Batch of 2 targets.
Target 1
Amino acid sequence: MKTNIEKAGILIESLPYIRKFSGKTFVIKYGGAAMVDEKLKDAFAQDIVLLNFIGIKPVIVHGGGPKINSIMEKMGKTPTFVQGQRITDEETVDIVEMVLGGLINKQIVSLINSHGGLAIGLSGKDGNLIKAKKKVIRKLSPETGVPEIIDLGLVGEVEKINPKILDTIDESGFIPVIAPISAGTNTETLNINADYVAGEIASALKAEKLILLTDTEGILDKKNKLISTMNSRKIKSLVSKGTISGGMLPKVQACQNAISNNVGKTHIIDGRTPHALLLEIFTEEGIGTEIIK
Ligand SMILES: Nc1ncnc2c1ncn2[C@@H]1O[C@H](COP(=O)(O)OP(=O)(O)OP(=O)(O)O)[C@@H](O)[C@H]1O
Ligand SMILES: [Mg+2]
């Protein structure tokens, strides 16, 4: 049991961080176990509400891969991925929009509200927040070694963020919760990887921090040991060796993109740890991997 004096000490230790970060914007990508496990969900929502009450402006962008997979399977469809990105046909994009923009987005909004916050859910379509175009990726053909275009279907790439709606939400004191979906050039719905959306929104808002929650301790080396700081050179080398792959690729790209656009700091942290956000923000050493220039 902590004595009351010890409790007061812990609160006082957070004072320098509160002073430093009050009034600043933190963009947080919410995904993985922290979105599934009941205790972790509550701890996340409490952290967000606490940050908000001390004057930090959290902006949440969420994923929802596992739920989309399970609903697709119930509907007789098999989820497929290339380079960590979902192949998305017309039926799949409808499922993505229903699950992300409806079910999951509103669950997060009510979770935050149940802890005393005032959250508001939106997708990239609302207020034209995200302008996107169809994404094209290339892969070297194993037979010829020539790059081939891979059609991911209705997968988008952010062209521009229109932060006006976020400014309005901020002025009214609400906490925005964003589903990574957008309308494309011909009003078709596009599914965008949430890590990229979080990175682009952090850049557009000149956020103090971009924090990506995931299901690993951070970036791991080939012996599965946590790497606490990484720069572009190290990332390039680990990507070319295949040590960084799949779902970690969009994360490192999002962080690199954000820091080159004046976002203060970027972190990939373990969402399986209760109150991971507080541990990152209110301790000198932080947790997970910090990505620097
Ligand atoms: N070097 C690496 N270090 C850590 N994880 C890695 C590495 N390379 C690849 N990964 C994979 O990246 C995964 C994280 O990305 P993933 O897309 O699966 O989850 P998420 O983005 O947190 O959730 P969601 O996509 O549902 O929002 C890890 O679970 C791991 O399998
Ligand atoms: Mg992912």
Note: Residues 90-114 form the longest helix (25 residues).
Target 2
Amino acid sequence: MTQEPARAPLSDDAQASGAGEVRPRRTIRELPDELISQIAAGEVVERPASVVRELVDNALDAGASQITVKLMAGGIRQILVEDDGCGIPLEELPLALRRHATSKIRSLEDLESVGTMGFRGEALAAIASVSDASISSRTGDAAHAHRLDARSGELSPAARSVGTSVEVRELFFSTPARRKFLKSEATELAHCLESVRRHALSRPDVGFSVWHEGKLVEQLRPGSASQRLQDVLGDTFIETSREVDLQIGPMRVHGRAGLPDAARSRADWQYCYVNGRYVRDKLISHGVRSAYEDVLHGSRQPTYVLFIEIDPERVDVNVHPTKIEVRFRDSR
Ligand SMILES: Nc1ncnc2c1ncn2[C@@H]1O[C@H](COP(=O)(O)OP(=O)(O)OP(=O)(O)O)[C@@H](O)[C@H]1O
Ligand SMILES: [Mg+2]
């Protein structure tokens, strides 16, 4: 066996790669805005369900009481999210689509105790950079709505009641490599529905409806937390789980935990929220697993819906671009 000699550090005249060709140095340049957004979109927008998650987050932050999601072709051809929230004033509409523009935080201090779902000021810009998007919005004191076309920047009068509609068409049409990763329409639709259900579980006070190809596929009316659990997860989950409500130090944990017999082969009935935000946290899932350790055999997965309420200053939500991970300041 012949061993390759250790390579000497590159000198000016010896920037040779293994193949022997010279690799010219390229100038450092600032990237164009649209490419920056497309790169950000790579982290935040993986599939139609990611767009649904971001738009529903925004609707909830706007104080909506009814959110309607209309999809075509599993969300690949079209995603329309309509809310009856506070709306966006005409003069702020163009800002909503700008990168790093947000109404939700103003300072590091705000970030450290953030109470809204959004705070990065990036979602709409990212989505608009990989689709054909438009926003129509109307505030309470506006005479009518306005529509902003993200591609052309054109503003025009529109008709709608107070609230906001965001329409996203042809996701990834400008980034065909990304589009190739999408699965079948049925699979993408299932992910979109799951995304709505995750929000719906933590916000029983808000009504949700989802339409696909003009047909109503999910309708959740506002009501009590237990009614919402039953509407989303069905009678079986309620019958095979018990209520949990614990105060553990500075943290309140409430929700429902499934009986050992109700454990499933897949980890699909595991919902965990920190201050209303759906998270997938290793620390929490490990904690829950160890709680079931003595009563669950093999690879059976416990079922649970747990809401953790904790002082926002004790948890860092600025960990992952999609905000699905959090970090507890005192993880023990
Ligand atoms: N449905 C909506 N109703 C009212 N205002 C909205 C709505 N959607 C977006 N906005 C406004 O547009 C801004 C930009 O939205 P965007 O989702 O891009 O960023 P964000 O929610 O502030 O942060 P993040 O990137 O973390 O989602 C928001 O801060 C908000 O002011
Ligand atoms: Mg947002």
Note: The first strand starts at residue 66 and ends at 72.
